[in-house]
Amino acid sequence: MKVKNDVWPNGMPEVGQTAKRSREIRSRDIELFTEISGDRNPIHYNEGAAKATRFGGIVVQGGVTSAILNAVVAEDLPGPGTVFLQVNWSFKAPARPGDTITGEVTIKKVRSDKPITELDTKVIRKDGTVVLDGTAVCYTMPLAL
């Protein structure tokens, strides 16, 4: 039975519950992330330099790849008011402009004394390749909307 409260008006998350969200990565995402971060690594912009690496072509910044998990956590599960406290992510494969990626979270643990959840997290390309996997700990606070 889902417990409703001020923090989780739709009910406390339950172990095993999942949420996912997909989006296509665009070259503009690289540009916007560069404006925010200052990351001008040539593997994100210079096709010749990027092709000469083990990645074999342009790759998007890890921050662009992992950002889809921010959206899943804040919008879907655990939901609005949620922030990351800790993440442990391993980047397994590159994501490139034109790739469609899906971020997925699964509730691993829910604390009953505090609005803290532990999640399994992953980002997968449309071809099934796992781009990122790991875990996260989140805190959810009530929002006065």
The strand line-up of the biggest sheet is 1-3-4-5-2
- Tell me the number of helical segments per DSSP (H or I, 4 or more residues long): 3
Tell me the number of strands.
5
Q: Can you tell me the residue ranges where pLDDT is under 50 for at least 5 consecutive residues?
A: none
Query: What's the Cα radius of gyration?
Result: 17 Å
Question: How do the helices and strands follow one another from N- to C-terminus?
Answer: EHHHEEEE
The description of the largest β-sheet is:
5 strands, antiparallel
Mean pLDDT across residues = 92
The proportion of residues forming helix, as a percent range, comes to 10-25%
| CA distance, first residue to last residue | 25 Å
**Percentage of residues in strands:** 25-35%
Structural class of the helices, strands and pairings?
Answer: alpha+beta
Task: Give the CA-based shape.
Answer: elongated
Describe this structure in words.
A 5-stranded antiparallel beta sheet has the order 1-3-4-5-2, covered by helices on one side. The protein contains 3 helices and 5 strands; from the N terminus they run βαααββββ. It has helices spanning 27-37, 47-51, 62-76; strands spanning 18-24, 82-91, 100-110, 116-125, 130-140. The protein is elongated and about 55 Å long. With 145 residues, it is of the alpha+beta class.
